[in-house]
Amino acid sequence: MLWIVIPVHNRKDYTYQCLSSLRKQTFKEFFILVIDDGSSDGTKEMIALEFSEVKVLIGDGNLWWTKATNIGITYALENGADYILTLNNDTIASENFLEKMVYWSNKQPNGLLGAFANDFDSRKPVYGGEIINWKNAKYNNLLNTIPTADLTGIREVTHYPGRGLLIRNNVFVKIGLFDEKNFPHYAADYDFTHRAKKAGFKIYCNYDAVIYIYPDISGSQELRKNKNFKNYYNHLFGIKGGGNLKIFTIYAIKNCPKKYLISFLFWGLVRRIFGYLLSKR
């Protein structure tokens, strides 16, 4: 059985849209588990009223993405999950999203499958996987190299975010859960897929399984919209900072091949320190 694990904190309207899209799936054999981490906007009440089929676990507001997701995964595994799909509440699944995920998972039982993200408003591709160049700390976007007409099937990548990641239960048995100690909010998904790859699993982007996202509403993007010293500080040191220097350093030490570690750290830190200042938003 497939369990979908969705951590949420407020943003009730996004959660409503996400759950509504899951109701329309062509594939029906799944459970939905929402971990409501202390929402104050009526999220819990909305789900109880509109989505009685959804199981909700309640947090105290301090779980963040990783611990909330781990709580959901643990609950799902204890209740017989064969597959777990980690999903963010600010995503909308295309109607055959789960069908295409399960189809390719059956074709590649040794793989983790990531969703193909498209912009909700423009319907244009946003994220289709990356290949890391450890030497220069660049993340090479496959969308820059694959013609649009060829964005079908699956392609192997080096890592994947957790906003639509299908994972078989044997992966957790072999490598454990997401690293909530070192990566409470960001980088836990990349770290997890690196660990899975090292353990012999393959990581794929599934171009047949489309989710729609809102690229500009993440915490890291919010810090870039209004540039000031406070937001710059939070970018480099805050728990929602996409350029968090401590998180990046731990991520590098844990995952980068040793022969590239110094180079990866240097270029990665330079991009995080100066990229915020040089970016247009």
Question: What does this protein structure show overall?
Answer:
Helix 1 (about 10-25) packs parallel to helix 2 and helix 9 (about 245-255) packs antiparallel against helix 10 (about 260-280). The protein is α/β, with parallel strands linked by helices. The protein is globular, with a radius of gyration of 18 Å. The N and C termini lie far apart (about 40 Å). Helix content is about 40%, strand content about 25%. Strands 1, 2, 3, 4, 5, 6, 7, 10, 11 and 12 form a ten-stranded mixed sheet that branches. It contains ten helices and twelve strands. Helix 1 (about 10-25) links the parallel strand 1 and strand 2 (about 30-35). The protein folds into two domains: about 1-215, Spore Coat Polysaccharide Biosynthesis Protein SpsA, Chain A, CATH 3.90.550.10; about 220-280, no CATH class. The model has no long low-confidence stretch (mean pLDDT about 95). It has helices at about 10-25, 45-50, 65-80, 95-105, 170-175, 190-200, 220-225, 230-235, 245-255, 260-280; strands spanning about 1-10, 30-35, 55-60, 85, 90-95, 110-120, 125, 130-135, 140, 155, 165-170, 200-215.
Mean pLDDT over the full residue set: 94
Query: Uncertain segments of ≥5 residues (pLDDT<50)?
Result: none
Question: What is the tally of helical segments?
Answer: 10
Q: Helical percent range?
A: 25-40%
Give the CATH H-level superfamily of the largest domain. Answer: Spore Coat Polysaccharide Biosynthesis Protein SpsA, Chain A
Number-wise, the strands total 12
Whole-angstrom Rg: 18 Å
Distance between the termini: 42 Å
Main pleated-sheet profile: 10 strands, mixed
Write the CATH fold name of the largest domain.
Spore Coat Polysaccharide Biosynthesis Protein SpsA, Chain A
Order of helices and strands: EHEHEHEEHEEEEEEHHEHHHH
| Outline | globular
Total discrete domains:
2
